[in-house]
Every structure is written in structure tokens, then in C-alpha cells.
């Protein structure tokens, strides 16, 4: 496997990644945002300034890289990501892929499915963006993003998963997923593996949405990574539950297959999130990309987790994942 990964400013050796957050968003825009001409959202300059400020805060605590797994149909702007990366010297990896049916660009691909070409065209798109570039930006994606909803995978979402598997096999690119409420990650994993994707090339994202230890260990035992990547989003699941579930895994020495992040959304296309939603979140934590380091790491250490285990999740696992290396064999319980 190659020892390089595509960033928005070009390929780098995986050893240059350093401490890496594996699921953060510079910006998103739910499909249809452009139709609301009364609420266009922040200007490009405002978004760049916001993102530069967030990254400078990360650099101040030693973080060197991040994965922004925004799929094509959720407001992705790789030109903005490139500008931010160039201004800061920060490594940003972007994705190619499509979001889940209920909140993504379903309408376009539903039409393509009616004429029987959707899966092939999706795969062609993913391969092109991984190997040749995204539009005329010259930016190449470094990963494929897929997503499914709560408690089931729709026919459309299975189409995206199949196209992602096809592209992953052709290019060798890894896959990261979105799950809702800690469901369907095991089904995502099994489908992709059955299509030929190596399990260690898959991150099952938002696994911290579940406190089910058997669900977590089942995915780990099959060889994939867990994304404990929504720290700070207490509006969905309290961090107390995430920390408890993570500590339980770390006490069984499962750190070699876990990556961490916040799933923060730093900017939005169109109108920002409603104030009623923002009022339900801790203002000190809200979209703070340093939250894991400043507030979660001390709690992990207090619970008996070692600094070496934390470093494994932040440094070793992202490097190993993008290099395509198998995780270390886990000792028998």
C-alpha cells in the first residue's frame, strides 16, 4: 500500500500527519440551501477567517492534521479547504462520496437509478475525484464517505455503499462512514467486506452514538476502526456516555482500532443552525475543536487510561489507517 495520503494541498507521507482529528467539518450545507436566497449565510471571507481561527487553536495544542469527510452533496468546498490549508500550513484531507438518503442529494441519483446507471456513475465519480481531481480544483480526495440512517439501510444507501466498494477496490482508497444513533455500523461493515473491501480500510463513524459494548467489540473483532468522533455533541449523546464506553474499550486494550474527533461544523452554507438548537448545547464546548484535548483527555487519564493509549488513537491509528496497514493483533481477553 502507498505511504502517502492526498491532502487538499497535495500528497504527503503518512508520517507527516502527526496528531490527527478524524472527523471535522469546515462547512456543510444541506441540499436546498441555495434555494433560500433570503438567507445566503456567511461570506467566503468570513468562512475562511472562522476556519483559520479554529485551525490555529488546534495548532496551538499540537494537532497537525484533520479529515473533513464532507460528502459531495453536503456543501463540500474543497477550494475553501485548500485556501485554509495554505494559509495555516495545516494538513486537511477531504472526501469524495454521498450522504444518506433523507438528508443528502437523493433526488439526482434517484433519477439516475431509474435509467439504471446510478451505481456505475457514482463509482466513476468517486474514482475520478480520488485519482484525477475534484472538478477543476486540482484537489484529490483522500477517502470515500458513505452514510446510512437510523435502524435501516435504504436501497439508495446500499447503492452508494456498492459504488464506494467498487471505487475502493479500483483505487485502494479507504472508506469512512456515517451512522445514526449508533446503528447499522456492523451491517455497513459486513456489506463492504462482502464486496471485497479490507476491513482495516473502513472506519465505522459515530460509533460513540451507542453504548453497546458488544456492538463495538463486534466491529473491532472483524477488523475495522471505530470512530469515537462526536465528543462535545451532548445534544445527541452526553460525553459521560462516550467516555464510559471508550474507557471500557481501552481497559481491554482496544485502542489500536479507535480514532477520535468532534464532528464539529465550523461554518454553514445558508442560514446557521437554529438558535433553539444552539441553546441546547454548552456554549464553551460548542464547535470547540480543542474540546477532546482540553476536557476529554483529562477525564480519560483520571479513569486510568494511559497517555500512550491516547497517543495511539490520535497519532498511530490515523497514520496506520491511511497507510493501509493492519492494526496490531489484539491479545485474547
Automatic annotation (TrEMBL):
InterPro entries with a match to the protein in the record: AryldialkylPase_Zn-BS (IPR017947), Metal_Hydrolase (IPR032466), Phosphotriesterase (IPR001559)
Q: What are the alphabetically sorted keywords of the record?
A: Hydrolase, Metal-binding
Copy out the cofactor comment: Binds 2 divalent metal cations per subunit.
Highest taxon, organism lineage: Bacteria
Modified positions (N6-carboxylysine) are 145
Q: Which GO terms describe its molecular function?
A: hydrolase activity, acting on ester bonds; zinc ion binding
Q: Which cofactor does it need?
A: a divalent metal cation
The answer to whether the entry has keyword Metal-binding is yes
Provide the residue positions that the database annotates as binding Zn(2+) 1.
23, 25, 145, 263
Q: Which residues bind Zn(2+) 2?
A: 145, 178, 206
Family of the protein in this entry: Belongs to the metallo-dependent hydrolases superfamily. Phosphotriesterase family.
What is the protein named? Answer: Phosphotriesterase-related protein
Native source species: Parahaliea maris
